[in-house]
Automatic annotation (TrEMBL):
The gene is KLHDC4. Residues 1-33, 348-379, 398-430, 481-533 are annotated as: Disordered. Residues 360-371, 404-416, 483-517 have a biased composition (Acidic residues). Pfam families: Kelch_KLHDC2_KLHL20_DRC7. It comes from Astatotilapia calliptera. InterPro entries: Kelch-typ_b-propeller (IPR015915), Kelch_domain_protein (IPR052588). Residues 1-10 have a biased composition (Basic residues). This is Kelch domain containing 4.
Amino acid sequence: MGKKGKKEKKVKGAEKTAAKMEKKVSKRSKREEDDLEALIAEFQSLDAKKTQVVETTCPPPSPRLNGSLSAHPEKDELILFGGEFFNGKKTYLYNDLFFYNIRKNTWVKSEIPNPPPPRCSHQAVVVPQGGGQLWVFGGEFASPNGEQFYHYKDLWVLHFATHTWENIKAPGGPSGRSGHRMVLSKKQLLVFGGFHESTRDFIYYNDVYSFSLDTFSWSRLSPSGSAPSPRSACQMTSTPDGMGVIIYGGYSKVVRVSSDSLPRIVVIFLLYKKWSWSRLNPSGSKPPPRSGFSLAVGPAGRAVLFGGVCDEEEEESLEGDFYNDLYLYDTVKNRWFPGVLRGNKTEKKKRRRVKKDMAEGEEAEREEEEAAAPQGPTEIIKEIVTEDGTVMTIKEVIPGPQVQEEEEEEEEEEDGSATAPLIEPCPRSSAMATVRQGKLYLYGGMFEVGDRQFTLNDFYCLDLHKMDQWEVLVEMDPKTQEWLEESESEDDEEEEEEAKGAEGEEEESEEESEDEEEKHPAVQEGETVTDYQNRTEQYWIGLARANMGSDAKDKKVAKVALAMAKVFYEDQ
């Protein structure tokens, strides 16, 4: 009896200790949330002092990720709102609002009184009613040190006609969250999934809410069938008839005893008509598992997926492979296919004319071309991989005709009329994307090199009808790449000088205030990006290795080195 009583006391003591810890953690979580609410209130009080709408022409928005980019329903304009930026020491959240004029290629910053407080990872949906509206729901706010989070559950609407923000206070809506998805389906907004993180725990959701644009009221849906597992950052697309939505992919973090598991969910689900879930099995070439991809809806209801990152866990470290490939999902045919760029059409016509003008009687030369054909694809693959570093371009290789085109391109190079190499956005995740008039627009995002995060502010456009080549609207500005962690920039400068000396480049200037890019190998006149990458390969590999550490894989280091060389080349 005595031993049993002692055991019972120990159990009760452990339960009491656990309860105290639970209460302590709960209080701490509540205290941190109160602190963030006070900080948010300060931002709102500052915004409340603004009483007039002020619009000013401005440079492109600062580097950021996890903002929203939306297409105006009537005008040739794009609307960028919010986002975040991290410089190694401090996290910045934004609630600024920008309008991009597509025809003029100009940006305007619009300061409207009483906007939503700063946030990222929210959702924004444009609807045509009332002269055009931008609906914003949820998102998160982070403390400057990035260790505390506040998740919004507010709903806002921006009225384009009156240039006013309105906070819609309707009960019964989703709980506070970020990383969720929201789309327009007929006359309602559908919200799915997302997550909530605090000091205490994190929760992933798979619930579905509907907001009526007629009655301005929330309702929680209870679809039949087997629902998708809880997730955030998935792809959610309305069906062409507007009667349902399609869910693809997403991210969920599951804690295990040994380490964190980072699954990326790749199954497609359909929520349709009388709100029932069904699982789809699409055909075609599916994207590899990833998270942080950008998504938009293209022509004919095709879902467009760009980039993202696949995290790889190795013991205590976590590394990511970033992508810049493009996939399209046909919602009607339930089929995936890679978005392969076709290149410049006018240059292809030139090559056809060269073919037509060739002497038909030169049988010997044709036999030599056919004999060399098996070697042609290998050369093309090497060139494209070196230039772009993507899986997508490998699928463009076709034996025979591709070899002929490559040989003709070499002849054109001798004549000085060669095509410029294809320009593509560098690999990234969490970029902002939208489609307007059949064109995909991509802004910002981030990628990582070792422990450093590079946040982007470049801007690209791709015609989804032609699928020929990316157009650069705003080039990345290297001066915006700020990183303040433990004075690593000074160490990097010394390592770059050593690498430069090994390459036998010119001596650096004695002035320390010179731009950092001048220390890199210079681009020679008439040199293509491929030639530059090949010539300076060892330098950039050395620089990437210095940033990523000796434990990084050679393949990953080479990939990062190519991206760094390409970014530097394009900036010159």
